[in-house]
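ok so for the tutorial part 2 we go from a plain amino acid sequence to predicted structure tokens. step 1 is just haveing the sequence, like this:
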Amino acid sequence: MKDTIQSKKFTDMILTIIITFILGYTLIALERQIGVSKTAIALILGITLWVFALFQTKLDVNTQIIEHLGNTAEILFYLLGAMTIVEWVDTHEGFNLITKHITTRNKRKLLWLIAFITFIMSSVLDNLTTAIVMIMLLRQLVTNQQERWIFGSIIIIAANAGGAWTPIGDVTTIMLWIHNNITSMNVIRHLFLPSLVSLLIPVGIATFWLKGEIQDQSASIRSNLPGISHKEQITILALGIGSLIFVPVFKELTNLPPFMGIMFALGCVWIYTEMLYNRKKNITRENTHRIPSILSKVDYSTLLFFLGILMAVAALQVVGILDQMATFLNDRIHNVYFINTIIGFLSSVIDNVPLVAAAMGMYPLTHADGTHLSAYMMNFTTDGTFWELLAYCAGIGGSILIIGSAAGVVVMGMEKINFTWYLKHITWIATLGYLAGIGIYYIVESL
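step 2 — the prediction. this is what the tokens look like for a chain of 447 residues:
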């Protein structure tokens, strides 16, 4: 009898946590309608779920909070460093040097150009950094807000698509690569075409939403740099881009977290900026182009939104909801294509990192050591269908909702894209691209 009561309490608390999570996400989605900041809701949601977790789990919740806060802080500090460096380049008009070479004024051609640049860039840089850089470029080219929302949404899709087909393009592919679930050349060979298709379809549809040409901004480019020469401008642009590219190299060489690489790069940029302005006699020390002033321009509400959302998802992980979800998929659905398709849809709501971690825990890597394996179990060997498709679905599924990926959240914060607008206009084309990519993967693997 006592066990029955405890089991009922456990079930009720789990149900309460799930309902609270759904309610919180709904309020975030209705930010504009209810007139309450999504950041405030995310913070309340994250803390509330941890209060529930305190009564739900037998684990040391304080220890769990510190562990997950550490993981979340890595993302937040990385984002802070990347946003500061990108803002530093933009403050010194570094991106103008690039936009001056984008000569097309046709909106449709520009959409394709932006999409492909983002797709390629995010295969080398992470999709979060790529999204930040491309939005800053976009601001130099497109002034109309509604049109910039279309461009920004395509940047989200392209960044997630580009990050899925290389081992270093996304956190989830890095996880799978490090644990030997996938290998470099195989993931590139098998996922490049599906990832490309997942981008081509949304861009092709969005093309019909744009007409005419954008206004030439060359005449209105601001010219308020405090004594910065063209050569110094080029140096600043090169340092900014070099700093972002340095991060994956730093991680590969040291195996230290990416946030340490971006903070090291920020320190170097900071020193360079101080030296640059210290030798200019006519520039005051308090000028707005130094790093302290640039830090004040960073969107801290976006960082706090990340904190709330990631801690909310961490609470779901601690109480075992994500593991239960993985178990359900394993027991009820015995098809790697259907399982991964569902995981992809889930990643549009839940952060893909804990989803992939849960999947890796539920489906351990199977080693083909000469023993006989069933056709189903072969899907779980290194470069097996399950792991490759997991990399695709977890990454690209995040484009279905604007809050489904780090790139989406940061673009949402930078451009103030409305959740319901994205849901109405972009979700369906992102879903078409996502499903088409899975279809392409299935056809190629069946040949």
